[in-house]
Amino acid sequence: MKLPALILRPELILSLPKYWGYPHRRITGFFALLLAALCLHGCFSLKPTYTKEKAAESVIALCRDEYGLKVNAWLSGETLYVYLPVSSLTTIDKDLASSIQKNINRLVVSATRVCLSMNPRMEFLVITVTDTKQHGIEYKIVNYVPDLVKLQYNAISRNDFSSRSIISVSQNPLAIGDEEGKYIRKEPVKKTDFICAQIAQNIASAAEKYQEEDGQTKPAGMMPPKAADVSLKNGKLEVTLLQVPSRKTTPGAAAQLTQESLSIIAAVIKEYDFRDFSVLEFYGLPPDNAKSEFSRKALLSRLQ
Q: In a 3-state reduction of DSSP, which class is residue 27?
């Protein structure tokens, strides 16, 4: 089935039930959907159309009035949450799959339109699309709104933008039957958590190049599993590389992964001018988890 470029690739949806046990895998199709939506609507007016205080009701009204789409939305601090319940994300019915994907695209376009057409803007946009009828499968994408603006003005590339978008797929039994999104924790996204998640996500993508799978083939359209723990504790940024089960990393590849991971951390720290830490504590791959420490200045010097 050949589908328009703006919608999720069908193999991503149809493969989901097989991989519920992989909570850290990411769906790349949602990147394409969001990027296409932004490019398609690249001529948003610079004149503010919506206010931040009415952002949630504006998304709800826009989806309802222009697409007949029922969504829910909430403004929590500087974070706009938008929720779309769907009947299925694992259907093999081509007509139903096309309808669901079209509605997801409409939601992304509407939410992005509101975010980019207001002044002042909120900091984060969280879009959640959940199968509330069958399995409680949830797509969630978290974007830093200034990154959306940079993409809008071609200040960053599509690849750069995709590496900054935090995407997750999970299964939550509480979502079944929840058409309002009551199960969602609507806490303001913290920039620190966003940065840590971005570092972990990008290290996972890098780790795939240095790992050999034991008789397993990575599912089409699925990103690698979690490859690093990243957190901020007592003013220290801690990053610990993880050995992915069923995968091998040779000593030489491990050294390369270490160097690339440090470059990834430095690039994210520089991009967001992140200063909430005094030192980076970096732990290599098991079994030794060799520890290294870097000041912020020493870390950023790796990019020079």
A: strand
